[in-house]
Write a structure and sequence with these properties.
Blueprint: H1 3-18, H2 20-40, E1 45-52, H3 83-91, H4 94-103, H5 106-109, H6 115-124, E2 126-130, E3 135-142, H7 145-203, H8 210-236, H9 245-266, H10 287-321, E4 328-331, H11 344-384
Antiparallel strand pairs: 1-3, 1-4, 2-3
Amino acid sequence: MNESEKSFLIEALSLLSNWRRFLIINISAFTFVALVISLILPKWYRAEAKILTSSSEIADLGLSSLVGDLPFQGLGLIPKNDETLRYLAMLESRTIMMNIANRFNLQERYDTPNWEKTLRKLTENVSFDTNVDETLSIHVWDQSPEFAAEMANTFVQMLDSLNIQFRISKARDNREFLETRLEETKKTLANAEQNLKTFQEKFGIIDVTEQARSSIQTISEFEAQVIVKETELRFKRNYLSEDHAEIDMLQTELRELKKSLRKIQHGTNGDSFDLGNILIPSRKVPALAMNYFRLLRDVEVQNLLYKLMTQQYEQARIFEAKKTPIIQVLDWAVPPIYKDRPKRAYIVLGALFFSSFISIFFAAGVERWRRIKAELQVQTNSNGN
């Protein structure tokens, strides 16, 4: 330790010694006042409810989920919705906040002059936190532990109720859309069946080999996927912009499906089906049989599409009528036993350190001023002599 450090340490110890009475009284008084204030402050309790976040029961349309039994369905992957973000958006919405404020008469409880300030106060007393274990926690603070727990549970119930409303509304839209599309498919199927029947009656029954049937079935399945994708794309264009990622993804998948279909129908050299020994060269099939195959293929496509549409339509009707809870509650809120705030230890320690700093700073400033004043007095006396 050099001389300057020794001098500073001696000066500091001297300051503490000379001002010890002032420092003890001032710091003790300030800390005692902080302790009294912390004891007077009202107790706030925090209640917590925890819910699981998972993918929605209803996809945006869900048509692609029905082609899972078909080959080459890998092109139809649909990204999962982020339910956590949806839940957070709904919980923080003005709709739920206003319902909570009205249900619990918070304007009177918070003693606020208008609803705007009531909602602002409510926002300060609630918190929605996502956890690493894919759960969502709803925290509510209030001076009554029972009131806090009841409010937290009401948030869960309102979130579930709003979710059910959205599910029913989306299911209704899907059902109405699929209902129209199903009627169109019925008419198309009836026409295809009538055309096939007319052809058979006119030319007699043609013997169709299993090899040719495989060709028709494979093409039918691909064309059904193309129609499903086109239907899904047309539906999503009703509420998504043309440059949206999902629209772009569906267009890409549709192009790939059509490309694969053309390859199967015409082959790589444009004259044969290109699936090994399963399919037969198209140019070697008699013209009469080819007409029959086309008519049979149309019936197969429309039958498959009608089956897919019927399944989806029935699913939409079930979802529209379903009013069971959606939210999976992991923990309902219970009245907390211990207070969450004020943090009395933090208040007292903060007051102790703050008052110590201010008191020492004040003492050092006074000592410095006295020293400067004494030096000026000495200089004045020297000049006077």
